[in-house]
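Table S2 (text version). Query chain:
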Amino acid sequence: MGKVVFLYRSLAYRNAAADMLRKARKLPRGAERSAARRYARALRELSQTEAWLEGRVADEPQAMQSMRVAATR
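Corresponding structure-token output:
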């Protein structure tokens, strides 16, 4: 179930980034457009970081289990 929740969260970040980029393209050049583009870039990077963290968290319990088995021997 956790992977499904992660997928929806990651897709939500990516969709929000795409929406923000679309809005930024409609704005005239200037500070507001730059801020919108930075916000969209941050959302995209957040989705990538979430994907990396999810992979790291998923691997950690398996490593901990093998360490527990080794410690009980």
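Notes on Table S2: Residues 57-61 have pLDDT under 50 and may be disordered. Residues 5 and 21 are 25 Å apart (CA to CA).
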